[in-house]
Write a structure and sequence with these properties.
The complex is a heterodimer.
Chain A (H helix, E strand, L loop, with lengths): L1 E5 L2 E7 L7 H11 L9 H12 L4 H10 L4 H10 L11 E6 L2 H5 L2 H12 L12 E6 L11 E3 L2 E3 L4 H14 L26
Chain B lengths: L18 H6 L4 H7 L3 H11 L11 H6 L10 E6 L8 H8 L1 H15 L3 E6 L4 H16 L15 E6 L9 H8 L23 E5 H13 L1 H5 L9 E8 L5 E6 L2 E2 H8 L9 E5 L8 E2 L7 E2 L1 H6 L8 E6 L4 H15 L5 H18 L5 H14 L7 H15 L1 H20 L1
Parallel strand pairs in B: 1-2, 1-4, 2-3, 5-11
Antiparallel strand pairs in B: 5-6, 7-10, 8-9, 8-11
Helix pairs in contact in B: 2-6, 2-9, 3-6, 5-6, 5-7, 6-9, 13-14, 13-16, 14-15, 14-16, 15-16
The chains are: A alpha+beta, B alpha/beta.
């Protein structure tokens, strides 16, 4: 660890010299710095990249982003804690987000929550012992016409019933598909064959 | 009436997201036409079309563009607001997923009108799939020379980037969106100054909803007068409605403005599920007042008619509730949403929404008193109009409209609570 001069001012940031992201992630961040009229705009995407590499935004990851973008640590912390999609605690390899807002509630979202809770034997926010699962109830995900639904990692699963959801979780356990889809993967739906997707439009 | 397809004509085609398929269906013809027009001509055309912002406020698009000051020496920025987070609303997602090039072409036309050379699509973080679709479409457009330097061989340069939000409803408010784009918490700014004068990075900025921008290619291709003829005198054109809740055919529908609301539910949405009776409708997303079934006769789906009926068109997120719905629980659900999503900047909103939620929760769980109804009204009065952005009003609206329209259900739960407590005290 070392102290670093940021924007000409000594800031109280201890750079995590031992935190190394992949070369691809480093290249993406470098590219991000030049995409915007002001490099500060790279903060949200940079936090995503750090989260994708570390699974969640560890203290080290937040410090790394701050030093990499030359931003005050307090600023990066306040941004990271403001947005719900940045995880401040560990989540499972498959993080299930159950939409609980009105249209999903009207169409049976509570039953999905009960199903997940019962099957995984977890409370919201807990991670299963094998690190495989976690879940939480979230607010409207913009899938009201295909309610009720869940988002697992970055993928929507819609028009669900408790039975369909159970079947889906069985498939995920069996095939362990890669459900990340936030810029790292170029191919849509890798490993998703056979799973329900938005079908209403 | 009701079946003119401006935005959804090719939405169900599996290949529409691909640039070649889009071009084979007259895609990118309108922007070529626009590039041969002057900025003033495009703005005049959009003004004459009567197009109003489709994000919720319904402000005339051409007039909004006219607020951008000329010759400030600063760059002008265009932001496509695709941070669709209003409960009940999922129309922009359909456009972004199914027809991303139409959204991009609309941005190109707006950029030309505004003399803007850097534009951004701000997509809510949860929309990973639409974001990837749009990113790929942008890559395709760059590869063909439709974006970058001298687009379509003209002397006009334009770069477009995709920026994902990270889960905050308030970033759909235009100044919250700008703050978020700048790498900060998405807390709205005081207005004035308005973004058209001081927006992103301190420069003039136009923030338009995705649906608004996606409508532009049709207007330029077919002419303002053709668009103005559709819909009603003051509510021109078609509108995407996203219908959900207790209906047989939920989904995204494009209808001509002025379409009868009840006919929309019956004919387009297949009527109420399981043969049940209609109880209530939220016509424009969770932030607009709810209407009882007996208030829907003669109500049309356009800006003026819905205001006359005591509600708003909003984002077009229509939520239908049948007679099995517990209205106290329904509004408590919405207040949970607002409690979660308050950005925390203004005390009346940050603290007030929690109190409103708790008070309604008390009533819903049969622990309330008649004093809680008075308390609810007091709380709402002290939130409404006392916050930097419209979020405070957005949460007060469902709270008060549910209370006023379904007061008997609130009172029944309070009476149940009273009798339970009396019973227990005698027990």
């Amino acid at each position: 660890m070392k102290m670093e001069k940021i924007n000409g001012v000594n800031r109280d940031i201890k750079v995590e010299a031992d935190l190394r992201l992949s070369d691809a992630a480093e290249a993406r961040i470098e590219d991000l710095m030049h995409r915007y009229p002001c490099s500060n705009s790279a903060l949200l995407p940079a936090l995503y990249i750090a989260q994708e590499e570390c699974s969640w935004l560890t203290d080290r990851a937040i410090r790394w982003v701050a030093s990499r973008l030359n931003l005050p640590l307090a600023h990066v912390l306040e941004v990271a804690t403001f947005y719900t999609m940045f995880y401040k605690q560990p989540v499972g390899k498959y993080h299930i987000q159950i939409c609980r807002t009105l249209s999903c509630m009207l169409c049976g979202a509570k039953k999905l929550t009960e199903q997940v809770r019962k099957r995984l034997n977890l409370s919201a926010g807990e991670v299963s012992g094998d690190g495989m699962w976690s879940f939480e109830e979230v607010e409207c995900l913009g899938s009201c016409g295909t309610a009720p639904m869940v988002e697992i990692n970055d993928t929507f699963f819609e028009n669900l019933t408790p039975e369909k959801l159970n079947d889906l979780l069985n498939k995920i356990e069996k095939f362990k598909p890669d459900l990340r889809y936030s810029g790292i993967l170029e191919e849509l739906g890798k490993g998703l064959e056979g799973f329900p997707k938005s079908s209403v439009w | 009436m009701g079946h003119i397809k401006i935005l959804t004509e090719h939405l169900d085609r599996e290949d529409q997201h691909d640039i070649d398929a889009y071009e084979s269906r007259a895609g990118y013809a309108a922007v070529r036409k626009a590039l041969a027009m002057s900025s003033e001509e495009i703005i005049a055309e959009v003004k004459a079309s009567g197009l109003r912002g489709r994000g919720g406020a319904g402000f005339p698009t051409g007039i909004k563009w006219g607020f951008v000051p000329k010759n400030t020496g600063k760059p002008v920025y265009l932001l496509n607001n695709a941070d669709e987070s209003e409960p009940g609303t999922f129309k922009d997602r359909a456009l972004l997923e199914r027809n991303p090039h139409m959204c991009i072409e609309g941005m190109m036309i707006a950029a030309k009108a505004l003399s803007c050379h850097w534009a951004c699509i701000y997509i809510r973080g949860e929309y990973a799939y639409p974001a990837e679709r749009v990113s790929k479409a942008i890559k395709q457009a760059y590869a063909k020379g439709y974006l970058g330097k001298k687009i379509f061989g003209s002397d006009f340069d334009l770069d477009i980037v995709v920026h994902r939000g990270a889960g905050a409803y308030i970033c759909g408010e235009e100044t919250g969106l700008i703050e978020s784009l700048e790498g900060k918490k998405g807390q709205p700014r005081l207005k004035p100054p308005f973004p058209a004068v001081v927006g992103a990075y301190g420069c003039p900025t136009v923030v338009n909803n995705t649906e608004t921008l996606a409508t532009l290619p049709w207007i330029i291709a077919n002419g303002a007068s053709s668009y103005a003829k559709i819909g009603t005198d003051k509510s021109a054109g078609t509108k995407l409605f996203s219908a959900s809740g207790h209906i047989n055919k939920p989904g995204v529908y494009e209808i001509e403005l002025g379409y009868p609301l009840l006919e929309f539910i019956e004919k387009e949405c297949g009527g109420v599920r399981n043969g049940r009776k209609l109880k209530a409708v939220i016509p424009g997303g969770s932030s607009v007042p709810v209407l009882r079934a007996d208030e829907l006769d003669g109500v049309m789906l356009d800006y003026e008619s819905l205001v006359k009926a005591g509600t708003m068109l909003g984002s077009g997120g229509l939520i239908v509730m049948d007679d099995s719905t517990d209205m106290v629980e329904a509004v408590m659900n919405l207040l949970h949403f607002y409690t979660h999503e308050s950005c925390g900047q203004c005390t009346p909103c940050r603290e007030g929404v929690r109190w409103v939620y708790k008070t309604i929760g008390r009533i819903n769980h049969c622990n309330g008193t008649f004093g809680d109804i008075r308390l609810l009204k007091d709380l709402c009065k002290n939130i409404s109009g006392h916050t930097i952005c419209p979020f405070g009003d957005a949460l007060v609206t469902p709270a008060l409209s549910f209370l006023n329209k379904f007061r008997s259900e609130f009172e029944a739960k309070i009476e149940a609570a009273t009798s339970m407590h009396v019973g227990s005290s005698h027990g």
